[in-house]
Structures
1.
Amino acid sequence: MEVNNAPKIGPVLQKERKERHLTLDRLAALSGVSRSMLSQIERGEANPTFAVLWSLTQALGIDFSQLIAGGITHQRKAEAIELVTLALTPEIKSPDGAWRLRILSSPALAGRVEWYEVEIAPGSKLQSAPHAPGTFEHLTAYTDGLLVETELGRQELLTGETARYRADIGHEITNGGTETARALMVVLYDQEA
Amino acid sequence: MEVNNAPKIGPVLQKERKERHLTLDRLAALSGVSRSMLSQIERGEANPTFAVLWSLTQALGIDFSQLIAGGITHQRKAEAIELVTLALTPEIKSPDGAWRLRILSSPALAGRVEWYEVEIAPGSKLQSAPHAPGTFEHLTAYTDGLLVETELGRQELLTGETARYRADIGHEITNGGTETARALMVVLYDQEA
DNA sequence: ACACGATATCCATTATATCGGAATTTCTAT
DNA sequence: ATAGAAATTCCGATATAATGGATATCGTGT
């Protein structure tokens, strides 16, 4: 790999080892990882494999997640401006070509916030199974003819209008018009904050 | 290593990837890990290094500890479908008519997630002061000619392309084209619990 | 100061993680 | 069915993780 901005786990491991009054040799015997490898890992001069890391957590009796100091286990990377070209934008197409979703949100946000450009063929519908409890959808129509239906009601949309509804129950979006319909769909999962 | 009784993370990673509708190629582009390596890891035929695992958790936006286990969910209340007509959709217009924002997100979400339809006149720019620390913006171009600039860099956008950048520093969006430019802007405030 | 045992690092060798391109399989469409 | 495209898996080449023995460093007495 060209760059490695992964967190430093060397010092963490060294700290755990020293707290247990273990020598490199002793830990090597316990974990099955060689002393030299341990030395390199602790000094950040090696990039251990998963198997090695796992052995170490077992030998030290620590939780795997403890390897990352401070508990911040996912950090925002993008320092500059990140560009997602059209070709790299994930798409979901229905088997019968009734609809197409372009996933505009970042994969890193999946399960928290997602937004899509929706395209539905005339007379077709996009049916969705219930999402996780507490999930809401917000649909803004870019064209006329769209209809939203859930177990709790139905609502037609004109261009520019927005519908907000629970998505933790069955719901479907129908294009009742004669042209391909487009819309913006934002899915907001319950944040429980 | 002779023995490896470490947990199987391959299936976990594959599940996360598929949930995001990413191909091996796309995840490779996102993470910097080759598609062949990804394939091997998912099938348990490789023993990835820490650096590789870290890249993957970053690209997928999952917690490092999720590689071992998994679990979530909660719930909330009920309502029907709420409709926001075009006339009721809040708008912000610049004094000089250089740009216009339509606030598509719910006011209840303000300060957490907000999304806008942006319109910028030819040759004009939308300048924004820094938002709260940790805030990110995601801009998807609906037309050509848009240019995003922050203190950290600049990026031109073609139709359908998406830019992601920090919004906790000064940033501006310019329409360098000769037609009115349109885009979707999603502002995501830092949620860290 | 000087040893001397204990511990950690360096070095050459081996094993394998990682990569890019080719071959294969899977999917989609006609 | 069959062709084409897309996605995944296979394969040879390379970079590097991992090892065991040799060397260096540290610590603790005397």
Note: The helical segments of chain B are 10-19, 24-31, 35-42, 50-60.
2.
Amino acid sequence: MIGYRIKVLRQKRRLSLTELADRAGIAKSYLSYIERNLQKNPSIQFLEKIALVLEVDVETLIGEETMVKGVKQDLEQEWIDLARKAVLTGITKEEFQEFQRFVEYTNWKKKHKT
Amino acid sequence: MIGYRIKVLRQKRRLSLTELADRAGIAKSYLSYIERNLQKNPSIQFLEKIALVLEVDVETLIGEETMVKGVKQDLEQEWIDLARKAVLTGITKEEFQEFQRFVEYTNWKKKHKT
DNA sequence: GTACTTTGATCCGATAACCGATCATCGAGA
DNA sequence: TCTCGATGATCGGTTATCGGATCAAAGTAC
């Protein structure tokens, strides 16, 4: 639930509800209702304000659980963070794909060890 | 702008505005206003309904351009796809992190070649 | 040709989103 | 001890969201 995610992130950042609301330029009363999931349909602009202060993207707040044709499309946030970090480090897509092929090969090898 | 993105994706899927609205269970009048950016603050649930029909995640609709302390936080969709593929292939985070350290080491080596 | 259907745009209103003010409680400082 | 400020929760009101109805134009079938 979106409210819970906001609350956890806020606490992770050591922000009070009041502080987050002030910084985001939103009403703390509404934020309180959202965090407790008493209100569940905030607007995109409201969420963007919060995301900005919490230094995450909106997707993180709403949860990556979009279903596409019954197939779960969520990608664990940790993987996204890893990819992001990789980009900042300077890894190219080619290097990554090379690595992926290597792992596939390794797995294949494991499988055919007998 | 969010409305433009929705429109483009909808046309890509060969859906009429009416059809998308019907499938998403939303009012086509509001969708029309949104697509033309006459209204710019839809709710998260409204967007999730659209995203589901268009088979994208909400982030795609709103644009991955969240700025975090002046640093662009968008992550190229291709990288996300690579990460996703990696997960399906069975790569563990530990393996990936190992690889990352290796690349960092390689880059460091390159740098200190002289 | 006419009749019907579909499209996206326009209009108006109900209601939930979101606000500011207030409240009860707690903690810190004098 | 008392006072003040901060916290998160509660309350009532404004207004923008989002809905349904309608419209004008285009397309299709007979």
Note: The mean pLDDT of chain B is 79.
